């Protein structure tokens, strides 16, 4: 699949915009605060109905306006599909082929994207929260059941934590209701763990191959699902649900004292191993970055395997964070494979030599124009937004 056309209205610092893209590599050039990242963000929001930069939708709406609109025309194997996402005071409205969707979960997955930013290079050495978010965001796009179970799990977890706090403050003493909440949490928790383990197994297969290639066969990469729950390896969904329910009930006194749920997939993590050793603990910065690069690139093939089509790849200023060898491997991997949107201040030598026939947009002083790699104008201005002190990116 690829994004043929994008239209924006009152998104971030874009008043209006209309752009047509290449199915290959699209390069967005410009200095900081010109709108490159905002444009990339709009594609991500169109696909996932949420931003990777903020949880507050109000920040996505151009200063002084009450709503914003993102439209895209997606080419898939069988058809062209119009998508639209409206952001306003009353929340989001999502349309697929001009038909409004009753739930966002019915909308998500129509357009699949992988975002790779400098922050993703810290996936390995960063926090468990970031690694859980990585699984939830990427897998949630291609697995409707996972997204449903994750949403339900979070709802029950919120209720359970609230009830544990009331027990810790002696506002109630109904352990029967706590049993009910534990059973509900275990029902969704067991499903989430099984699905996460399957996703990581699929991801590991492709990441291992990529990692071996980057390291010239010297390093074997593997993953390990790290859970606070005991004895969960190679268990069925039903067995995991029972294990979680049993272990939750043994934690009651401790949980009531702390007023929070202490075990479950919301506290789990991923371990990355190179030649059997934990990269987070023992790996060099270069090994950690190579691991992160292998993981992100492996997502491309996992999404293709799961959906039958390649996703879009969004690269936000990543090249500047990689050395020449890793830049080369990244660009060779994506060439002629996936539609790519790449932001950078300028085309560097590696990119000039490896990217074949890119479509280049230069963003400067409120204008976006299609240009050559040397900055020569190809098309007149294709979009315009007045400069402001707000929401630049």
UniProtKB/TrEMBL annotation:
Q: Where in the cell is it found?
A: Cytoplasm
Using the record's annotation, list all stretches that form the RecF/RecN/SMC N-terminal domain: 2-344
Subcellular location, principal: cytoplasm
Q: Which NCBIfam families match?
A: recf
Say which family it is in.
Answer: Belongs to the RecF family.
HAMAP family this protein is in? RecF
Q: What does this protein do?
A: The RecF protein is involved in DNA metabolism; it is required for DNA replication and normal SOS inducibility. RecF binds preferentially to single-stranded, linear DNA. It also seems to bind ATP.
User: What is the name listed in the Swiss-Prot or TrEMBL entry for this protein?
Assistant: DNA replication and repair protein RecF
């Amino acid at each position: 699949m690829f994004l043929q056309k994008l239209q924006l209205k009152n998104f971030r610092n874009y008043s209006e915009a209309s752009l047509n893209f290449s199915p290959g590599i699209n390069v967005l050039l410009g200095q900081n605060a010109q709108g490159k990242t905002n444009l990339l963000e709009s594609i991500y929001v169109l696909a996932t109905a949420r931003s990777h930069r903020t949880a507050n939708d109000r920040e996505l709406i151009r200063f002084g306006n009450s709503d914003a609109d993102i439209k895209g025309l997606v080419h898939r194997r069988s058809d062209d599909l119009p998508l639209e996402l409206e952001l306003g005071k009353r929340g989001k409205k999502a349309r697929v082929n001009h038909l409004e969707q009753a739930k966002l979960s019915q909308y998500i997955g129509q357009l699949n994207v992988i975002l790779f930013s400098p922050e993703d290079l810290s996936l390995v050495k960063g926090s468990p929260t970031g690694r859980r978010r990585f699984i939830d965001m990427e897998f949630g796009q291609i697995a409707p059941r996972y997204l449903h179970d994750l949403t339900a799990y979070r709802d029950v977890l919120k209720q359970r934590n609230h009830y544990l706090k009331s027990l810790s403050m002696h506002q109630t003493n109904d352990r029967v209701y706590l049993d009910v909440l534990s059973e509900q949490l275990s029902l969704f928790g067991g499903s989430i763990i099984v699905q996460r383990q399957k996703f990581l197994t699929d991801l590991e297969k492709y990441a291992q191959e990529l990692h071996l290639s980057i390291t010239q066969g010297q390093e074997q990469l593997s993953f390990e699902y790290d859970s606070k729950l005991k004895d969960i390896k190679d268990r069925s969904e039903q067995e995991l649900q029972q294990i979680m329910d049993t272990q939750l009930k043994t934690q009651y006194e401790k949980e009531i004292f702390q007023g929070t749920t202490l075990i479950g997939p919301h506290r789990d993590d991923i371990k990355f191993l190179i030649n059997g050793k934990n990269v987070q603990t023992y790996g060099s910065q270069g090994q950690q970055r190579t691991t992160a690069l292998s993981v992100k690139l492996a997502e491309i093939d996992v999404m293709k395997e799961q959906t039958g089509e390649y996703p879009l790849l969004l690269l936000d200023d990543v090249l500047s964070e990689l050395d020449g060898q890793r830049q080369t491997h990244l660009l060779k991997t994506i060439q002629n494979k996936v539609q790519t949107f790449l932001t950078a201040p300028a085309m560097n030598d590696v990119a000039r030599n490896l990217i074949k026939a890119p479509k280049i947009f230069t963003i400067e002083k409120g204008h976006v124009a299609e240009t050559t790699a040397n900055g020569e104008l190809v098309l007149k201005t294709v979009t315009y937004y007045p400069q402001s002190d707000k929401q630049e990116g």
